[in-house]
Write a structure and sequence with these properties.
- The complex is a heterodimer of chains A (252) and B (324).
- Chain A is 34% helix and 24% strand.
- Chain A is α/β, with parallel strands linked by helices and 252 residues long.
- Chain A has a domain at 6-94 and 165-251: P-loop containing nucleotide triphosphate hydrolases (Rossmann fold, 3-Layer(aba) Sandwich).
- In chain A, the strands form two sheets. Chain A has a six-stranded mixed β-sheet, with helices on both faces. In chain A, strands 1, 2, 3, 5 and 6 form a five-stranded antiparallel β-sheet that branches.
- In chain A, a hairpin with a 2-residue loop joins β10 and β11.
- Chain B has a domain at 42-250.
- Chain B has 324 residues and is mostly helical.
- Chain B has a two-stranded antiparallel ribbon.
- Classes of the chains: A alpha/beta (252), B mainly alpha (324).
- Chains A and B meet through α2 and α3 of A and α6, α7, α8 and α9 of B.
Chain lengths: 252, 324
């Protein structure tokens, strides 16, 4: 594996929750421009890994590097500013803002900080055009003026994706982007991810193996906080250890 | 990430060009201010206005950032003492005493906010309450507050050395202008790029962080702004009523402002104004009942929480499907 094109990498990443090692000595290399999936049975430490990478949790030990720069000690907002943007397992939209406003909150980051409480929000209308484009890109432009809380779940996930792309992130971390979706929505969201992943790097936690097989260039399997196996789908799906981990967890 | 527990229902946001009736409401409010002193006793209206501004400042936090402060009396009361002391002991005129008081509250807000915003929900409320209680006991002991007596007979003086504020109608116009200024500032804050980030934080703080917003700093600015405007209300109140007392800084004052905002409607623009008018009217007209006023207030609180969870203006906005 070519080592120098890793955009996001971890070295000995460990998280110890008072004696419970949720993530154990994980060395992850996410290559630029690829879709990298993180899979594993429940409780394998996937979401903890995500929270560590985006600094929502502080690692107990280990290093995180983004384009060679050590980001282990940055705050979550700083990581986001660098271009590593995450989504959440439970769809994270701003419920009582309209779909347009949701996307605009992300676009507004281009102004830098927004502490100007004396200025009219009319200045934000400059972003309306781009916000509508993004809504169109995920197929919900008709819902622009609808409060996010009123959108069906699939559209909420699409909105969340539009909000994430609005930041033009270099690396997108998607935490179970298709969880809770019906079959048609899964297909739509998967196609969307494929679309927006062009020119970007995506690291995603995903349970739906069909989606993983279809999208991922590389798959890392976590079990009990450790990397069990890594490779493309063909290799992972035939790995006996992976099968055992999955079946074992179902029995347990 | 655990989902944040749902606070009281909050009016739904809509794009800015649908805010016409809010602007209409502001015009109506201004017209009401022009007529009010000729219909009601001006001192009574001034009391309503001071509390209305206080409630609006409080609502900026609970309604638009989702932070429930249970220590806002600290800012109201601090400004009250500061304005009283500045006007009476230092002999500062109104136009210096009130801004001085506002600054004191803003500074205090910065410190309290810095300590409190690290926690969420009930912990945030408890920290603000604890800090406000500490301050209460400080003021109870500090010599300059006059202890149980408070600072009495604070001179109203002359505005810019010309306008005689001892005339109730003259000071009324000044108070009405201050209220309107504060109200418009809050209105603008809500509808500013900053306000948009605040609402995002209220809806989903973790998501706002993941978009690159350093939410603690936004919350701190909002907290300080709210404290400053509460101070503006408290300082003005002290000079109008020529009295700064422990009542202003007591925890019941923090409770009253919660009640005002709740009765009127959390997260609505006009709710706190109406809420303040209702509560102050009750206190005035039911004053003959003595301690029973508290019971009536309690019943209103219960009725509100049970039947009108959105508050008066909030329910109205819900019926009309328009933000008010």
């Amino acid at each position: 594996m070519a080592g120098d094109d890793a955009i996001l990498e971890t070295e000995g990443l460990t998280k110890d929750f008072r004696g419970f090692l949720a993530v154990k000595n994980v060395n992850l290399r996410v290559r630029a421009g690829t879709i990298h999936a993180l899979i594993g049975p429940n409780g394998a430490g996937k979401t903890t890994c995500f929270n560590l990478l985006t600094k929502f949790l502080q690692p107990t030990s280990g290093r995180i590097r983004f384009k060679g720069r050590d980001i282990t000690h940055l705050r979550p907002a700083q990581v986001a500013k660098l271009g590593i943007v995450r989504s959440f397992q439970i769809s994270a939209v701003f419920s009582h803002l309209t779909a347009l406003e949701n996307v605009r909150v992300a676009l507004q980051r281009r102004r830098g900080e927004s502490f100007d409480f004396w200025r009219s929000e009319k200045v934000l209308r400059a972003y309306d055009g781009r916000a509508r484009e993004l809504l169109a890109a995920v197929g919900i432009e008709a819902m622009a003026d609808v409060p996010a809380v009123e959108l069906p779940y699939g559209q909420k996930r699409a909105l969340e994706l539009a909000t994430t792309i609005a930041l033009e992130p270099e690396v997108m971390l998607l935490d179970e982007p298709t969880s809770g979706l019906g079959r048609e929505d899964v297909g739509r969201i998967a196609a969307l991810i494929k679309e927006v992943a062009k020119g970007r790097t995506v690291l995603m936690v995903e349970h739906n193996l069909a989606v993983v097989a279809d999208l991922s260039d590389t798959i890392t399997v976590l079990a009990r906080g450790e990397v069990l196996a890594e490779g493309d789908y063909a290799r992972i799906s035939t790995d006996p250890r992976v099968r055992e981990a999955y079946i074992g967890s179902e029995e347990g | 990430m655990a989902a944040r527990s749902e606070p009281a229902p909050i009016a739904v946001a809509v794009p800015s060009d649908v805010l016409r009736h809010q602007k209409l409401g502001i015009v109506l409010l201004a017209a009401l201010l022009l007529v009010a002193p000729f219909v009601f006793y001006p001192v009574f209206v001034m009391k309503v206005l001071c509390f209305a501004l206080f409630a609006c400042a409080f609502n900026l936090l609970i309604g638009y950032v989702g932070l429930l402060s249970f220590g806002h009396a600290a800012f109201f009361g601090t400004a009250s003492y500061a304005a009283g002391h500045a006007a009476k002991v230092w002999g500062l005129p109104f136009e210096l005493a009130v801004p001085f008081a506002t600054l004191c509250s803003a500074g205090l807000g910065l410190v309290f906010g810095w300590l409190a915003i690290r926690r969420q929900g009930i912990y945030f409320a408890m920290i603000t309450l604890a800090l406000a209680q500490m301050l209460y006991f400080f003021y109870l002991q500090a010599p300059f507050t006059g202890g149980e007596d408070g600072i009495q007979a604070i001179p109203r003086g002359k505005l810019f050395g010309i306008l005689d504020l001892s005339n109730d109608l003259v000071i009324y116009w000044v108070v009405a202008a201050i209220f309107m200024g504060g109200f418009l500032l809050i209105y603008r804050t809500i509808h500013s790029p900053f306000g948009q980030v605040l609402k995002a934080i209220r809806e989903n703080e973790a998501r706002a962080i993941s978009l690159g917003y350093d939410t603690d700093r936004y919350k701190l600015v909002a907290f300080t702004l709210s404290a400053a405007l509460s101070g503006l209300a408290g300082g003005t109140k002290a000079i109008v009523f020529q009295l700064a007392s422990l009542t202003d800084v007591h925890w019941t004052m923090s409770g009253e402002v919660v009640l005002m905002a709740l009765v009127g409607g959390l997260g609505t623009v006009f709710g706190p104004v109406l809420g303040a008018a209702v509560i102050v009217s009750l206190q005035n007209y039911l004053a003959g009942l003595g301690h029973w006023v508290t019971i009536v207030q309690g019943l209103i609180f219960v009725a509100c929480v049970l039947a009108f969870r959105r508050g008066i203006v909030g329910e109205l906005a819900h019926l009309l499907k328009k933000p008010l």
